[in-house]
Amino acid sequence: MQFIDLKHQYSLYQDQIDQRMRAVLDHGRFIMGPEIAELEAGLADYAGTKHAVTVSSGTASLEIALRALGIGPGDEVVTVPFTWISSAEVIKLVGATPVFVDIEADSFNMDVDLLEAAITPRTKAILPVCLFGQLPDLAGMNRIAAKHGVPVLEDGAQSFGATQNGRRSCSLTTVGSTSFFPAKPLGCFGDGGALFTDDDDLATSLRAIRTHGGTRRHHHTLVGTNGRMDTLQAAVVLAKLPHFEQEVRNRGEIGARYSDLLRDDCDVPEVDVGNTHVYAQYTIRVPDRDFVAASLKEQGIPSAVYYPKCLHEQPIFADLGYEYGAFPESEKASQEVLSLPMHPFLSESDQDRVVGAVKSAIANIDSRAAQAA
Question: Could you tell me if 139 and 162 are in contact, meaning their C-beta atoms sit under 8 angstroms apart?
Answer without folding.
Answer: no
